[in-house]
């Protein structure tokens, strides 16, 4: 099986994982397409002759976190609910292992990133079509809110967060030279226009501030910072003008909750995030090692989630789970930063030597995009329980796969330098002999 064929098979499961057509079209649910495809994917990975898996520091912490998850589920008072969450997360881990084991080449990594954006375009496009043309919305907080077509991450806040986490990868491919075909550039432009519109119509305040954080980050990374800031301001003002009045009031309630269409709900929603954090700390003090178990805060908060990553992880998985989880995130972040520095150095050398390397600029931008996604996940964690989101693992995939690629690139570069030195050696000896003879 060729590397690109394996990348295409992985991309197919990525589509099922994000779009989840079996949750929108209920008739497909009885066929269990995701299970059948996962079995096919695992079998293809097993017979794939170029697979390799490296036990990095991030993977060690991820394994430790999963073990804590199992122990916490076993010790929880509602173990059936806890093990259900653990089982769902284990399926994400299986897909992650397949990703990091089979996707290593630059073309493969690029294909996965493009497949992710293409799937998000279809997912957000279908959800927007249902909202604008078929009147499919969720009336909450006094406004008609757009939501995703799936039931897993379709909640307006989760849907807006999913869009926000994809924006750094839109930035990674921005620029005419990074996409070979015109239809790809048009599709990317279409998604870049659709994404902020969808965020606004979800009425998600956390989605709005996370999107603004993204604009700040790309403005700081831009070479022409003033022009980028000016463009960001124009986008914000233009988007605000087309936002319905009730949605504007919903967003203004970030500053003044009393102006929201449902003021009491808006204020209680904001207080719920703080309450979730404090409740998680209380649970941590009474269950310091393993917490009360995954998804068990619903039984201690009268059926509600913590709506706060830090309260959720401290309360549900205790100190061991929190330490392992954030150690994994830290290792992923450091690997991405190290990859960026190495790619910059390799790109500098190849430019000076005149060689034609892989697209190091594209790989570098994917590392930066993954770093931005991690920052947005940590920031948005103040407003939602996003511990089990696949986006954490997706950023880790780019970190690990590009790091492995750089190991082989470094070895190849070393061989290239040795060969060049050997080619120059005879001419150096001859010139030295001529100099001795003239002397």
Automatic annotation (TrEMBL):
Membrane topology: Multi-pass membrane protein
Superkingdom: Bacteria
Residues that span the membrane, as ranges: 24-48, 60-83, 112-133, 154-174, 186-214, 226-243, 317-336, 390-409
Localization in the cell: Membrane
UniProt keywords, alphabetically: Membrane, Transmembrane, Transmembrane helix
Keyword set includes Manganese: no
InterPro entries: O-antigen_ligase-rel_domated (IPR007016), WaaL-like (IPR051533)
Keyword flag Membrane: yes
UniProt xrefs under Pfam families: Wzy_C
Every O-antigen ligase-related domain range: 192-326
Name of protein: O-antigen polymerase
Organism of derivation: Oceanidesulfovibrio marinus
